[in-house]
Design a protein that fits this description.
The chain is α/β, with parallel strands linked by helices and about 400 residues long. Helices cover about 35% and strands about 15% of the residues. It is built from 14 helices and 14 strands. Helix 3 crosses helix 7 and helix 8 (about 225-240) crosses helix 13. The two termini are about 25 Å apart. The structure holds guanosine-5'-diphosphate-beta-L-fucopyranose (GFB). Guanosine-5'-diphosphate-beta-L-fucopyranose binds next to helix 3, strand 13, helix 13 and helix 14.
Length: about 400
């Protein structure tokens, strides 16, 4: 278990005190944010936790998944989803100590969170002058997210756990990276505030985007084994793709996986992430029409001598049918109802990402974090960057800048 792992890493005389008094860091993110942006916020929180752990014993309580705007499949249960449905907890635990929310309730002796900080920007914004990292307790700017019940405990969304309560809520104006808040959390006595929750955690920025610590946490976010297995089976069945033939390393332990860029080949197919829905409603000029996208797909297949194309998309049915008409040979992961109920929208999206990550060539959608996470996965797997950092251009987009190459730092 995570506890055993961390205990085994610490000198014996420290284990007793530090482990006994370990504090809990909880967080949540603004509701409209999607799954892959939330993965990014986890990385920021992990870096905060690492700072806190230099002084005290802390554990990250993983915010259950649910009620995400993009998860629109009807009739399936999509709240209070534990992280283990999507990620491999053992892998996460090799980076920082983490626990599921329900384990927190059990260990904490009840669904009470001592202190909730709602993070917000400064009312006055960022004035001219040098950038300054700061945090201050301030009156809450937005309508309150928490309201008191008759016992003066605070009720709120709490990931769909209706019985959870906060004992104290206050607002913090923040400007800066996740570490800016560490001194404040350490100043609170553990006896009083053993569990601390940061809500609207996306208001804290990365301490060092793209640095070693970023990548350690990113690499530890290994997808759950059952989802990887479904993706691998799909690759072999429909795309003639296996790790052995594609020269992709089989290593499960991220701490041992270090591949030279370009040494992996990838499966004999083109993979596409075509983000639609809210990306086209805004009529953004960096998103192509379906015709534009298919033209690009055909040209890439020809250039790279690939006769198979895997498509990941959130297109609505009507658009999807149009796409299929324009590109009849396309391959897509289409879950049965039972599979959807089992993996949920989040799991199906992960399977899509997994298959995209293993392709010989990938092209994604401009500024979609769904595509960015595929870039990172491919980087970790050691595929040639030329085959990764590509995106569709809008039909009328003139300067179509391609995504930045973020190199893994080990
Ligand atoms: C405009 C912004 O867009 C941001 O989205 P963006 O970065 O693409 O990426 P995400 O944050 O992941 O949100 C998009 C969600 O849409 C679904 N989705 C998108 N593409 C696919 C796909 O190819 N296959 C499957 N199965 N599902 C897909 C999936 O649930 C995914 O988490 C949001 O996070 C922000 O909150 C905001 O809405």
């Amino acid at each position: 278990s995570s506890e055993e792992f961390w205990v085994s890493q610490s000198p014996a005389h420290l284990v007793s005190d530090r482990a006994r008094f370990r504090r809990y860091l909880l967080y949540d993110v603004n509701p409209p944010e999607g799954f892959n942006l939330r993965r990014d916020v986890y990385i920021r929180m992990a870096s905060l936790l690492k700072i806190l752990m230099k002084s005290e014993e802390w554990v990250m309580v993983l915010p259950p998944w649910g009620r995400l705007y993009h998860w629109q499949s009807p009739d399936i249960h999509q709240v209070r989803i534990p992280w283990s449905d999507f990620f491999d907890l053992e892998s996460l635990n090799k980076n920082i100590p983490v626990m599921e929310y329900e384990d927190f309730i059990a260990e904490n002796g009840g669904p009470f969170i001592d202190q909730i900080y709602v993070l917000q920007s400064y009312a006055e914004g960022w004035k001219e002058g040098p950038w300054e990292e700061k945090v201050d307790e301030r009156p809450c700017l937005d309508p309150p997210l928490y309201s008191q019940d008759k016992h003066e405990y605070y009720r709120g969304w709490f990931w769909g756990y209706e019985e959870t309560r906060g004992l104290n809520v206050s607002c913090l104006s923040v400007q800066g990276s996740a570490s800016v808040i560490a001194p404040m959390l350490l100043k609170n006595t553990p006896a009083r505030n053993r569990s601390v929750m940061l809500d609207r955690a996306e208001n804290l920025l990365h301490d060092h985007y793209g640095g070693k610590e970023y990548w350690d946490t990113r690499r530890s976010m290994v997808f759950a084994r059952h989802l990887r297995a479904v993706g691998d089976e799909f690759r072999s069945k429909y795309l003639n793709s296996t790790n052995e033939a594609d020269r992709i390393p089989d290593e499960e332990d991220w701490t041992k996986l270090k591949v030279e860029l370009g040494s992996s080949l990838g499966g004999p197919y083109l993979a596409v992430h075509l983000r639609r829905k809210d990306f086209i409603w805004g009529h953004r000029e960096d998103v192509p029409s379906l015709e534009g996208a298919v033209k690009k797909i055909r040209s890439l297949m020809k250039t790279h001598g690939l006769d198979k194309v895997f498509v990941a998309t959130d297109a609505v049915r009507k658009e999807y049918e149009e796409l299929k008409r324009l590109l009849p040979e396309m391959v897509r992961f289409e879950p049965t109802w039972e599979e959807l109920e089992l993996y949920k929208d989040g799991g199906v999206a992960i399977i899509d990402q997994w298959v995209c990550a293993h392709a010989r060539f990938f092209i994604g959608t401009s500024v979609s974090t769904f595509s960015f996470r595929i870039h990172e996965e491919r980087e970790i797997l050691g595929l040639d960057p030329k085959t990764t950092y590509n995106r569709f251009c809008g039909d009328l987009e003139r300067a179509c800048e391609q995504p930045t190459h973020w190199k893994v730092v080990y």
